[in-house]
Amino acid sequence: MAVVSDAASLEVIMNPSETLLMAQVRFNSQAITILTELDTFEAISVAFLVLDIDYLTRQGYKHFQYMCDGRAKEALEQVVNAVRQSCGHLEEVLEALYILGRYDLLEDRLGLTVNQNLHKVFKRLSSVASDRKALYCVFAGMAQEQADQLIHKRLPGWYCPDMGRPLEETFVRNLNDGNYWQLVTELFEALLEEDRDTLASYLHPFIILKRTSRTPSLVSQTSQITEENYYPLPMGYPHGLCIIINIKTFMKPREMNDTTPLLERHGSDIDKERLAGTFKLFGFHVMHFDNPDFEKIQQYFRKLRMNPWVASVSCLAVCIMTHGDEQDQLILHDRSCIPITDIRKLCYCQALLNKPRLYFIQACRGEQTLRPILLQQDGCTVSHMESDCLISTATVKGYSAVRSETEGSWYITDLCHALQEYGHLLPIKNILQKTRQSLKSRVGSMNNTYVTQLSEDKDTLIKDVQLVRAELGYFLDGIMDLVQLELMEKLLQEMMEEALGELENSSELLTLSSNFAGMSVS
Questions:
Q1: Both 293 and 399 in a single domain?
Q2: Are residues 98 and 140 in the same domain?
Q3: Which of 104, 242, 268, 391 is disulfide-compatible with 279, CB 3.0–4.6 A?
Q4: pLDDT per residue as tens digits for the range 191-236
């Protein structure tokens, strides 16, 4: 049975907004004690996120110096007092802890259970300025050596006497009355010069670009897109509809002759969150559908086809993650099968006529493992009768698809990375070529055998599909989803390393290592 009602039933038991309000009251009396548990870089990030521009310009650098010199408590007291004086409450500081991913402090010290409902509440908050969140994403996305190189190589006009200084501190050191947006623009251009387009894209919504030879790719997506060669671009929000179908668990066999082992697909939740955050960057409204059986998936798409709202979107993307077989059938929660071609038919309706429909399938298409062979190439070409469709599958027919239980699947990971970096610059077919290039370079070990993977695309598109960056609010919503996912992955990695350390002298270590961090097929 589908579990899409879980979030709704939880809402009745606990009102996360009320819980957050109680946590704010508790935080108001314990703020300094809790904040002193942050390390120096985290404390600087919190101060950078919550202080307004005028105060940051006048006092920010002094506070950062205090934090770097071991006087963090004194600096944090002044920061908290400044926020109280300007706002009357500390909601910004609480939101900053959430942005930093310090869920341990929110749970252990403030009694906040960080779950999907609480994520929704925090995402609705707008206490911390959007441009400050974007700058934080840039600062957090660079290692110290990269930050030093950027400052001294690309920003010669910025004063920074020493190496190893936090990038927030250098930014604030160079702040003066009226030059905030100038610094943001200079940082944006420096990131482009270093080919850090992904980090630059965080700042892009805040930059008023002039047409220069140095930044042609980010000036205007519409300038070279014509009706003759491209499907029409979106005219408003949402740009498109993205449906993520995640089949993680499967019912037990009901028939004696059903002996197919369908293991739980650990790691698919990571794929789901990565896809959601990525498509939000391009203004897609994201809908989740977890563990549908055959009847539920039929009802779902029947209602969708009848919904007049579908006519407002310019593109449909359907992402399906499940087990599959060599007949190109996808296995649903109740162990029934549905062909990929039937999914395409279910999604078709009059409202989507002449609009691109994109399908991304993470599923095995057989039991064989694709062995890495030097210079092996695949030249398969397939066509379809129905137009305006693209089906991209994680692997070629007859072979399995690789999924890490701690990092998600290879295909979804590489697809999302390609979309994040090039989705606003290149048509979707080029994005899938980038994905295939990344997959082709992967080699892993599973069951004492080296394996690789190659995705396959089949399309009847009659024009190119070009995605467009979302407007600011929706874009940053996607950014925050991806930042949270990255923090979660780091936490899982630390837990695994700790577990490996404890098992270092045990016989289980050999088994654990041979599984390559829980690598499976899906």
A1: yes
A2: no
A3: 242
A4: 989 888 778 888 877 774 333 333 333 334 444 555 578 898 887 7
